[in-house]
Amino acid sequence: MITLTALAWVPPFAQGLVRDLRARWALEEAGLPHRVRLLESADQGSAEYRRLQPFGQVPALRDGEIELFESGAIVLHVGARSEVLLPADLAGRARAVTWVLAALNTVEVPIQQLAAIDLFHSEKEWARQRRPEAEASVRNRLAELSAWLGNRDYLEDRFTAGDLMMTSVLRILRHTDIVDQTPNLAAYRARCEARPAFQKALADQMAAFASAEAARQQRGAA
Predict the structure, then answer these.
(1) C-alpha atoms less than 13 angstroms from C-alpha of 60 in its C-beta half-sphere
(2) Angle, alpha carbons 53-18-156 (nearest 5°)
(3) 16: alpha, beta or left, given left = phi > 0 and alpha = psi -120 to 50?
(4) Is the N-terminal amide bond of 12 cis, ω within 30° of 0?
(5) Orientation angle between helical segments 183-193 and 125-149, nearest 10 degrees
(6) What is the spatial distance between Cα 92 and Cα 143, in angstroms, rounded to a whole number?
(7) pLDDT of residue 96
(8) Residues facing 69 on adjacent strands
(9) pLDDT of 93-141, one tens digit each?
(10) Apex CA 115: angle with CA 149 and CA 30, to 5°?
(11) Which runs of consecutive H residues, i.e. helices, occur in 16-124?
């Protein structure tokens, strides 16, 4: 059975955004049986885990003899087993893969830079000076994405792994109203988030965090 490694707990600001959610969502869309191994943060640097994930991050995945890390690689691996995520026709599959890479390499990079400023460095003077430029970069990318999307429901003619990844990237901006200010992108994100597979993946991730938090509080009260 496929084993996905995810973090047992993260602070509230990161809950619902940790990148194992992308893999969980893909597995749910594909209908592939799997189990989730929950990793304590203290174990991220262990030699055992570093053999699976050289950088100590999540997610990581084992599928028989195949071992993968990086959410994009995992989503594409899962997608190769599901026409829901990667169309069977070569042209459709190529476009879906292109959008996965565009989400990770073109859209996520400026979004992550802005999120890092807001969530980790907002009180620093350099961050206050850098933020307007960082936000402008994000808005420029989203304007380009919005222009492509237009009145479409999805990036291509139907939902694919490209939409899964793009929606996951847009969700990083949930601490802002930037996406909401672009109506077609806001509707697109909501449309993808309404998919049952996403709702199941998100609920499972949040349930794991809630269970870990309850255990932490119980230990603290003991």
Answers:
(1) 19
(2) 100
(3) left
(4) no
(5) 80
(6) 24
(7) 98
(8) 60
(9) 999 999 999 999 999 999 999 999 999 999 999 999 999 999 999 999 9
(10) 55
(11) 20-30, 47-52, 71-79, 90-102, 108-120
What are the strands, taking DSSP E only, across 8-65?
Answer: 34-39, 60-63
Owner of token pair 């990237």: 169
Choose among 191, 194, 201, 182: nearest CA to 78. 201
Largest interatomic CA distance in the chain: 59
Please report, as a single letter, which amino acid is at residue 175.
H
Is the pLDDT reported for residue 4 higher than 70?
Answer: yes
Q: What gap in Å lies between CA 78 and CA 65, rounded to an integer? A: 14
Residues across the chain: 222
> Rg (Cα) of the chain, in Å, rounded?
18
Helices 196-221 and 183-193: angle between axes, nearest 10 degrees: 70
Q: How far apart are the first and last CA of the chain?
A: 37
Tokens describing residue 84: 């829901």
Residue 122: count other Cβ atoms within 10 Å of its Cβ: 11
Write the DSSP assignment of 146-160 as a string of letters. Answer: HHHHTT-SSSSSS--
